[in-house]
Structure formats: structure tokens, C-alpha cells
Amino acid sequence: MAPCMCSKISPADSLVLGAVQIMIGIFHVFMWYFLLILYMGQIRGVFGTYEPITYKTGCSLWGIIFIIAGVSIIRATRHPTQGMITCALTTNIFCIIIAIIASVLTTIELSSFNSVSYRNYGQAKLGREVSRVLLVSYPLEFSIALTYSIFGCIDLNRHNEDTLTAVTEEAESAF
């Protein structure tokens, strides 16, 4: 069986993936803060205030998970132990799930627009534009987390094989 030529991701690429994940996470947290200020300033009008499902669930605040995943990638790259690789792999799988859920919630939000009072229309329109920008960033986060998860599984498998080979060689040399 021939080994796959692309079965290892370089440490530099892993560091870049981690840094990009951290930047995406920080962007999402800043957008959450922006939406918080935007929607908190609404004036209750005839039709009420605009509070979309992504705002109620804190969807943008989930960017904290992206930051944690990026940090775990960087730590696993610098100290590639089995535990660190497993931690990075687990957080990235969690990021994949969160990116899918956030994309679905944002799509649901953007597909329906209940009328709001004239006073809050500008804030609702701006909030929807922020949601559109965030909707573009979720597939990027998904692809970064999926890429690292695939290569993390390969790296974890390779790490286990190396450990098993070392243990087997030690056992054979003892006899």
C-alpha cells in the first residue's frame, strides 16, 4: 500500500490555520458586541423591536469557541502530544458543528423579515447586513476546522503508530 503524499500538514500551515481561526473568532465577538449595542438602542415602536433568532441565541458570541479552537491548534502544533492533538481535534469538530448550526440560524433569520416600526427599521436593516457578513464567514470557519480535523486525525493516527512501534521495539529488544 503506497502512503499518501499529502498526509501531513506542516507546522507553519497549522499555525496559520490556528491564527486565522482566532481572528475569525475575534471578529465574531466584536460583531456580537456591535449587535448588542445596536439592538439595545432600539426604541419600542408600534410594531415592537427587532430581535432576530441569532441575536437571542448569541450566535456571534459563539466565536469564543473559534478562538479556543485556534489556541488549541497552536498549542498542539508547538507541543504535539497525543492529548494536545486530541484536544485540538475535539474543539475543531465542535467548531464544525457550531458553524453549521450558526449558518442554519442565520439563514432562517435572513429568510424572514417581520416588519418593525419605522424608528427601528434602520437598526434592523444594519443588523441584517451584519448577519449577511457573518453568514459568509461561517463556511470559512467550517472549512478551516474541517481541514485541521482531517489532518489532525491523520496526525493522531501516525502518533499512535509511532508509539506502538516504539513500544514493540522495546519489547522485542528486551527478549
UniProtKB/TrEMBL annotation:
Q: What is its main location?
A: membrane
Give the subcellular location: Membrane
Please cite one Gene Ontology biological process associated with this protein.
cell surface receptor signaling pathway
| GO CC terms | plasma membrane
- Transmembrane ranges, per UniProt, are 15-41, 53-74, 86-110
* The entry's keywords: Membrane, Transmembrane, Transmembrane helix
Q: Which InterPro entries did the record assign?
A: CD20-like (IPR007237), MS4A (IPR030417)
Membrane topology, as annotated, equals: Multi-pass membrane protein
The answer, when asked if Ribosomal protein is one of the entry's keywords, is no
Family stated for the protein in its record:
Belongs to the MS4A family.
What protein name applies here? (raccoon dog) hypothetical protein
